[in-house]
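Researcher: Please translate sequence to structure tokens.
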Amino acid sequence: MHHFDLYRLEGASERPEQLERLELDKSFTDAVSVIEWPDRLGEAQTPSNRLDIYIEFLKLQGTSDEQDTNSTDKYGEKRPVEDLPLDADEVTETRLVTFAPSGESWKQRIQDMVEEMYG
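Model: Translation complete:
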């Protein structure tokens, strides 16, 4: 597995020499690559066959009806969250993980995983 944290790269799409040192082409074909701040790659360097994983931090607020728990995402929008019984005055934090496949092989893998999990 290769891990790249591209936070410090600025304008990498305009300055490709910053990316050349990382040997991304080799990394993408040899192993799984985990990339933080992938938007810094630029469209030309971003693999078309990939799995994007988004992690959102949610703050949950209990309600008087334990079955009607709501969450507030980082944009302040309410989202229903099931099976998390909280007392009315209880606040907790959790994470919402979203998988976004690009390319046919990743789309098929996610579809297979969903079918395996939910039938």
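Researcher: Any highlights?
Model: The mean pLDDT is 78.
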